[in-house]
Amino acid sequence: MRKKIVAGNWKMNLDYNEGLALFSEIINIVNDEITGTQQAVICSPFIHIHSLVQLAKGYNKVAVGAQNAHQAESGAYTGEISAKMIKSTGAAYVILGHSERRQYFGETNALLAQKTDTVLKHDLTPIFCIGETLQERETETHFDVIKTQLVEGIFHLNAEDFGKLVIAYEPVWAIGTGVTATSAQAQEIHEFIRKEIAAKYNQEVADATTILYGGSCNPKNAAELFAQGDIDGGLIGGASLKSRDFVDIVKTFN
Ligand code: 3PY
């Protein structure tokens, strides 16, 4: 059985106190209402992480993650945060390659391959994001784009390391737009990703890989999306900023 994960991506929202208050609400509701084995994760801005980890102690249904990490171990990179620093807070996950990082910060597949190596080296779980733009879908190059992101970003890993990461398929046209991929569109890509993993590694590795859907996922559309055979949870943007909505999405797997 693949691990089911619902990860919230708070992006650059919530000041320190607001973040702690929201996280406290989330862990309380998760504790009361989640009966399954699914894992909830909150990927917060860096400034919250250490405090959230402290709040989450004793609540193993909620883990904490970062939204980025630098590829280098340490050094003269003013303003950056290393994977080792993230690990030292007690966080467990790191989102890599979100389309906003690719678009606004010029992150390439080659850079993301380095970041993946560094994050894995520090025993953190990368949530590696891939997805096509609207133009790429309209010109029917989306399968090629996704394959290239896989090949250049993560297919250099050996099977053991590959088995430690989580993939998130986030069509760029569905991020922050309120437009969601239909469950059939999402399933088609998830199935494609799993087939590519099977071709590169083997069926066992492919069957064990958790692949999340992200992009305007909310409590109304989560059940249909998560019912698809190759969708193992979600990476949740706006809806993760509301405790009730986020936990309702996590509850889909109860
Ligand atoms: C969204 O749902 O908009 C996201 O970007 C999740 O990462």
UniProtKB/TrEMBL annotation:
PROSITE patterns: TIM_1 (PS00171), TIM_2 (PS51440). It is found in: Cytoplasm. CDD domains: TIM. The active site is at H98, E170. InterPro entries: Aldolase_TIM, TIM_sf, TrioseP_Isoase_bac/euk, Triosephosphate_isomerase, Triosephosphate_isomerase_AS. The keyword Magnesium does not apply. Substrate binds at N9, W10, K11, G176, S216, G237, G238. Keywords: Cytoplasm, Gluconeogenesis, Glycolysis, Isomerase. It is an enzyme of class 5 (isomerase). It catalyses: D-glyceraldehyde 3-phosphate = dihydroxyacetone phosphate. It comes from the Bacteria. Its EC number is 5.3.1.1. GO terms for molecular function: triose-phosphate isomerase activity. Involved in the gluconeogenesis. Catalyzes stereospecifically the conversion of dihydroxyacetone phosphate (DHAP) to D-glyceraldehyde-3-phosphate (G3P). Homodimer. Belongs to the triosephosphate isomerase family. NCBIfam families: tim. This is Triosephosphate isomerase. The gene is tpiA.
